[in-house]
Known about the structure:
Layout: H1 9-42, H2 45-76, H3 80-116, H4 123-146, H5 149-179, H6 184-216, H7 225-244
Amino acid sequence: MQSDKHISKSFDQDLDEAIRLFLVMGDHAASQVAKAIHALIDKDDTLAQEVIEMDFDINRQEVELDEHILLLVAKRQPAASDLRLVMSISKGVVDLERIGDEAVKIAKMANKLAAQGKSAYGYAEVQHLSNQVRLMLHNALEAFSQSNAEQAFEVMRNDDVVNEEYQSAIRALMTYIMEDARHVSKVINIVWVLRALERIGDHAQNIAELVINYISGHDVRHSDYALVEKAVQEANDRIAARQASPLSVADSGLLNNDED
């Protein structure tokens, strides 16, 4: 993931470990979401309970990574570009933990819906939206792993599609309720599942924004796409420049890291 190596091997090792821990936590969060959806669709109480219990591992990983980042910053005092990456990991951890929380909500709704019995309403909408959201999360984590600003920008654009599909699904469910009020309780639970999926998409977008930030140096939160596209181009230019002409130690600003 890192494009330049530092005069401090320990710094590289600490940073690589932070990246590894982040991506492992990301994989676990994505697995929670997938299992929660399967539990819902298949009415699998056992799998739903597994998702709920997995939340302990996600929370533990959050604490472990927070401690690692704190020690890294205190001991190594990273230069500006590396500090952006470290802070992006720190912020992204919050999004991953909340993705885990949303997966737990879905799992709990899966248990409720299984207890209420089979309903034909809303499952197609959940399946469709979950496919979109899980792809967003996968691509956001991959963009982070590969330092790919273009892929991160695509995740941001896909969030608009997810929001539109979420609103469309909600309208369809409201129509179901008007047609048959006996299914209000079941449909409301499905609405909460859809809401959790929409929030997972938002967290995936946040991670994508962090990718663009640590590569380009621009905070693209709450920015229009023209500004994001400019930041992505600058990110690509920086990567191309580094590949064409490797920076000297002095130019790369790495002298703040002491050699071990």
